[in-house]
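Deliverable D5.2: sample structural annotation.
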Amino acid sequence: MKKTFSPNILHAVLLYILVVLAIGALLYLLVVSLRLVPPKSVTMAAGSPGSAYYEIALVYKRILAEDGITLNIVETAGSVENRDLLDDPDSEVSIALIQGGIRSGNPNLNALAAVFPEPLLVFARSNKVSTGNPHTWAGDRLGLGAEGSGTRAVVEQLADLTTAPVLKSTTGTGLSSTQAAEALLASELDLAFFVAPLDAPYLQALFDNPEIKLISLANAQALASQLQEARWVELYSGAIRYEPAYPKENIPLVTLVTKLVAKDNLHPALVNRLVHAMVRVHGQRGPLVMGHSFPNTELLDMEADLYAAKLLREGFSSLESFLPFWIVAQINRFAILLLPVIFLLLPLFKLLPALLAWRMQSKVYRYYERLHEIDLMLSGKLGAMPDAEERLRLKEELDRIEAGLREESLPLKYRERAYIVTEHVGFIRRKL
């Protein structure tokens, strides 16, 4: 005998399939709209190949690759160009290293952390420059930082503060930091400015060359107090090299702090991994003592990313030991969003018991208005006493009130009040 499916079974199967598809579509929309799954790549503006920023970007790239994230590095002239790329809405750049004092008016940018100090270093050939006063320097063989670099931005501020004509020259602005270091070593420059971490690759040969000296700008402390986001920090004797000691004596340096800046729509999972990378790369104590360990949010000159600040303040979640990092990042993301809501709702939570009590009592006490009116009628205070027909109607109404009290859905705590009202109904019935 041939088997057939009943229409009811077919309808049930179709309904089940539709429900599954609807749930799947809803989950997909949630995943897409809430960006639950992190992107597999992120683009970073660094510096020119060989520069400190570019080398740091390469280290970030290797660390992020451990979690399957590709870091695309964009070559730039330095901090100013990095900022401009972040400001550009059509740029694919999402993160960039930016020197302290290089500001942006873009409200959609946040700093993930201050990552390392960058002193303003002035190297000169010993037989050409004898003082740290720029008014005594000749102007045709100076490296003043490439256009678009953070070094050039600081030199332009120094030119205004010191009024030294030599710093307003443009003859030494076409060289990158690496090229300027090479030109100084080759005697093609007499002096060059660098804003760079002390472990920048191109600086090491300058430290080792006896014909090149690191000089301190005259009145460095006064300059640091006037430069944007600058600090006066002393580089101690022997901090770069212990034997033979370099520098030979303490040198006061104008020092800025570099930060890793990101667009505020950067996926929280990427923020999580970048903070991991920053801790690994910049967590060691360096030769410049700033009073704060790195990375940190205390030395920032702009708004900090909330999630990055939380990770640096509280550490990483223990959930990361058995859950994928991107799931933990989402949990933390929603926790950050929900905390203000919870604080706003706390007063409401305190009011809930009182609201519940009022609601339960109102279910009972709403009958009293009519009971009181019937009582006044039976006392003759509302006019003539009710006749037999009116009394019969009032008796039926009292029965309905009593039945309503009996059927009210009340917790045991409030059922007692219903019985009290029922007794009062009985009192009015006896009076009737």
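Annotation notes: Residues 366-431 form one domain. Residues 10 and 168 are 84 Å apart (CA to CA).
The annotation will be released with the project's public dataset once the embargo ends.
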